[in-house]
Amino acid sequence: LGQADPVTGAEAEPPSAARTFASFAMVLVAYVLTMLALAAMAFTDVASPSPGRVQCGKVLNRSVTLHRDVTGCKYDGLIAGRSGITIDLNGHTVGGLGEAVGIRVEGVRGVKVRDGTVRGFELGARVANTRRVNLANLRILKSADVGMRVLNSLRGRFRRIRVSGNSDAGIRVVRSNRNRFRRLRISGNSDAGITV
């Protein structure tokens, strides 16, 4: 039996099947939308560049965008630790004290390094045993040895890179094939601009 309405005293009608189904459907839709929103946030956290603190010698296993300079490095600056990541210097400088490597990209595929300055290491950038890496919009300055060394690498793309003031050659390419170098500015190095 239905319960009596406290105001009118009339007996209330029991909820119809249609109203029950509509309420259930609304709850279900709200639940699904909540789950989709949570999944989207989780995916964004994994896929987007990490804003976390990056320090000298950091091995990067996910894409990163710098928000400050990384300087005073006694050893390596930044190291690509995984294929397919992007290291966006975001206009900042990775600076060393005359030792080690500024940007180390070794044994990986499809890594991108872009938009910044590498200064004051023994070797500005080392790209070795790689496939399809992409370095762009970089300045590699004042290395104690070679500005950039490309070794045993295939199908790399190197564009809009300034290599200047290094104590040996600007760029040395060794045992590497099908790499493209475009719009380079190489000047003021103690040895050859580029050797192949």
Structure in a nutshell:
With 196 residues, this protein is an alpha/beta fold.
How would the blueprint of this fold be written?
Blueprint: H1 17-47, E1 58-60, E2 64-65, E3 70-73, E4 78-80, E5 86-88, E6 93-96, E7 101-106, E8 112-119, E9 123-128, E10 134-141, E11 148-151, E12 157-164, E13 171-174, E14 180-182, E15 185-187, E16 194-195
Parallel strand pairs: 1-4, 2-5, 3-6, 4-7, 5-8, 6-8, 7-9, 8-10, 9-11, 10-12, 11-13, 12-14, 12-15, 13-16
What does this structure look like?
- This protein is α/β, with parallel strands linked by helices.
- Helix content is 16%, strand content 36%.
- The strands form two sheets. Strands 2, 3, 5, 6, 8, 10, 12, 14 and 15 form a nine-stranded parallel β-sheet that branches. Strands 1-4-7-9-11-13-16 form a seven-stranded parallel β-sheet, with no helix packed on it.
- The chain is elongated.
- 30% of the residues are buried.
- About 5% of the residues have low confidence.
Structural class: alpha/beta
SSE ordering: HEEEEEEEEEEEEEEEE
Q: Could you say which overall geometry the principal axes of the C-alpha atoms support?
A: elongated
Mean pLDDT: 87
Helix content: 10-25%
| β-strand amount | 35-45%
How would a textbook summarize the main sheet?
A: 9 strands, parallel
Number of helices: 1
Query: Regarding quaternary structure, how should these chains be classified?
Result: single chain
Low-confidence segments: 42-51
Number of strands: 16
Q: Round the Cα radius of gyration to an integer and report it.
A: 28 Å
The N- to C-terminal Cα distance equals 93 Å
